[in-house]
Specification:
CATH topology of the largest domain: Aspartate Aminotransferase, domain 2
Shape: globular
CATH architecture of the largest domain: 3-Layer(aba) Sandwich
Order of helices and strands: HHEHEHEEHEHEEHHHEHEHEEHEH
Mean pLDDT: 96
Strand content: 15-25%
CATH class of the largest domain: Alpha Beta
Strand order of the largest sheet: 1-7-6-5-4-2-3
Number of domains: 2
Distance between the termini: 48 Å
Length: about 375
Amino acid sequence: MKFNTKTIHGGQEHDPAYGAVMPPIYQTSTYAQSTPGGHKGFEYSRTHNPTRQALENAFASIENGAYGLAFGSGLAAIDAVIKILKPGDEVISTNDLYGGTYRLFTKIFEDFGIKFHFIGMENASNIEAYINANTKLIWVETPTNPMLNIIDIKATAAIAKKHNVRLAVDNTFATPYLQRPLDLGADIVMHSATKYMGGHSDVVMGALIVKDKELADQLYFIQNASGAICGPQDSFLVLRGIKTLHVRMQRHCENGKAIAEYLASHPKIEKVYWPGFENHPNHEIAKSQMDDFGGMLSFTTKGNNYEEAIKTVEHLKIFTLAESLGGVESLSGHPASMTHASIPKIEREKTGVVDSLIRLSVGIEDINDLIDDLKQALG
């Protein structure tokens, strides 16, 4: 089954009760049992829910995995992965990553005795210098948030396997439409399904997808025991969003390319970060592991002026100034004061997240309207 068909049919069955084409919203907390322990596969909705199960099957299908898990948020999904570890274990993470991930790692799990190394991974060989007997996990974002750095998943997976270390990839920016990390050797794929998977800025959710049953069982246990699950209504919304993922991503990519090229030619723009440019670091790796370059980009204005960046995002009209990304509508953001404010200034500026950086999530509106909006805001 090809990807565009998987988004609609992958892992799905018609509802056995009445043949409903879309899985019903099973808005229930518990299920009747004929005898103690005698049920039809569902006993309590923290553990299993038919609507959530349909969504988890869809996650697994489109990422070419065997097992999918849905959580109440992307951070809840990341939290479950780190809970596999024990005090004294070490994690190697990319140094350019979502601020909430950095906060979870440093403000929560470091207090439990887990050590994190934040390093540049654009050259995968850099990773080996940080691997020791305590290293248990490599955490990768690619493209990274917000600098759109590209990390070679296949090369990183080879290093991880050589040292018997697990590799987890945050695939939120790319989505499985563009990139499938499990096929490239990753052990775990994570998504903030709030973003492109849901696609309509109306739900908060996280996802994990794996191939290995033993790992899946560990994560299912944590999901149930910790209870950070999503509800059936949210499951229904994201399942509906997945069914149009392929057509939405086509337009996100088309519009993202046009916006990146427009900004690159604008006299007021200093630098545009978009992996589709031939001079973008690791562009050739992006070409080899992605099917297109996505709808996310960042840029700085000339002079790297904080006030100019703030004025620009405040004057945009079609691009909404807001947290998040991946919805049908275009969004703008100022990472230093919004999504990455939890990262100390000295640390984020090392990776390029300067006060003049603006991040765009390019939506699926008419491209001429989007360019006109940028033109007036920059003018």
